[in-house]
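Reminder: ligand-aware prediction takes two inputs, not one.
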Amino acid sequence: MDAAVPQSLFSLTPDQHAIRDMARRFADERLAPYALEWDAKKHFPVQEIREAAGLGLGGIAIREDVGGSGLRRLEAALIFEALATGCPAVSAYISIHNMVAAMIDRWGTPAQRARFLPDLCSMATLGAYCLTEPASGSDAAALRSRARRQGDHYIVTGVKQFISGAGSADLYAVMVRTGEDGPRGITCLLVPAGTAGLSFGANERKMGWNAQPTRQVILEEAVVPLENRLGEEGQGFRIAMAGLDGGRLNIAACSLGGAQAALEKALAYTAERRAFGARIDSFQATQFKLADMATGLEAARTLLWRAAAALDAGDPNATQLCAMAKRFTTDTGFAVANDALQLFGGYGYLADYGVEKIVRDLRVHQILEGTNEIMRVIIARGLLSA
Ligand SMILES: Cc1cc2nc3c(=O)[nH]c(=O)nc-3n(C[C@H](O)[C@H](O)[C@H](O)COP(=O)(O)OP(=O)(O)OC[C@H]3O[C@@H](n4cnc5c(N)ncnc54)[C@H](O)[C@@H]3O)c2cc1C
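Here is what comes back for the chain with flavin-adenine dinucleotide:
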């Protein structure tokens, strides 16, 4: 049987188990022991991220001719859940990098695939996805960064807001306006670090996701060669949205992994901690809470795998399913992590126990790659047009 094909949605193949176990081992050994320190020091662990690429995690769904792992969305969901048990912020950055690589794999010319993807897959170069602007987040098609043609170059001016990895990344997939207002006037340009006119804002001070930088990307008359345009003029919004289908699954998987780690910590803690002469986990109220947490995660995991399989199969409802999975999994993951914090009592609020960091990291998953309100907009649009 093809290693990438699930036996059924409800059981994984031996290869899929092996892939998940490999990512979990990496998370246990190379991420989890250092995650609290990276969070406190706001350190972006590029070395460990590149080690993950050594395991094939820099180009998970990228075709193998350019160094990708040739896996599918379901395997990616398994990988990001496992990685996020070690550090949701690092796992989420690797997911954004993979989204950029997947956009180039799908929409790039043979020359662009050959030029950019081998280094992206090995993570010799790191990618960043630049859609949001200071005045347009949810309404991304209202973006105002502009590129005008001049000979065989574009001259680009504009500001991109909240860009993950900015300043450390080497290749920026930037959505800019080359034509009319609205989605059809948008084009995707690949802007390498070092481009004249490209600079970065300060690293934002954030609630979580401290192990990866978030900065503005500033383009001031930046000169980008025509050959760095991904797809045709006017295709950029479609490219950006198609990238987000997979990206949303990966972010959802990161919530699942973070929440799974919080549940595992809560199980261990409530087995040890005593009150009123008994273990905390001997109280039925605690057992019911743990049971509800595990049930929520299993329901989220099932929906996530279903959406991933739909995207792999080119199901026409895949975008709706991805939005459902992103909304449900990120809400459930945050709630479960917050419940875990509650089960730790006052210690849950202290940094050393590692649960409050998970809560802080997972909160932003309800906001980015489309807010959970926008996920409902997408789901409702599908329902009403059916
Ligand atoms: C840490 C971090 C990292 C990020 N990384 C990236 C990145 O790498 N690349 C990138 O391009 N972007 C990135 N983003 C941006 C993120 O995708 C946006 O913040 C998000 O899409 C929301 O946009 P906004 O912040 O402008 O909020 P707004 O669009 O202003 O929304 C404000 C509120 O209004 C609600 N709302 C808006 N429209 C509707 C509607 N039609 N119906 C109901 N409610 C609505 C929203 O849900 C939200 O609650 C990142 C953000 C953060 C915080």
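Residues 128-233 form a domain with the Butyryl-CoA Dehydrogenase, subunit A; domain 2 fold (CATH 2.40.110.10). The chain is about 50% helix and 15% strand. We will return to this case in the review session.
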